[in-house]
Amino acid sequence: MTEEIAGTPGWVDARLDQVFAALPGGDAVTAGKAAYADCLARQKDPVAPADDMGAEFDGCRGRLRAALSSAGVSGQDWATLDQALEALEAEITADS
Known about the structure:
By secondary structure, the protein is mainly α. It has helices at 12-20, 27-43, 58-70, 75-95.
């Protein structure tokens, strides 16, 4: 018997590197990116009902925004990042 394990597709890490590349570096941004990736993996339910697809990521971006705001990431940088992350989450959902 094979157990379904929550996780994101393998291509997500490379995409996160691309998305976060536009932000200024620093330990807080690196930690925020890692926490966001972990959140995505924990929230991705491989057997989620079709009507719940995408909703599983709702809290991940909110926690990331708080962390990056505390790290001094500007509202404009966040808006650009937020759009890219929303698109990434949609791709993850479609790939599932």
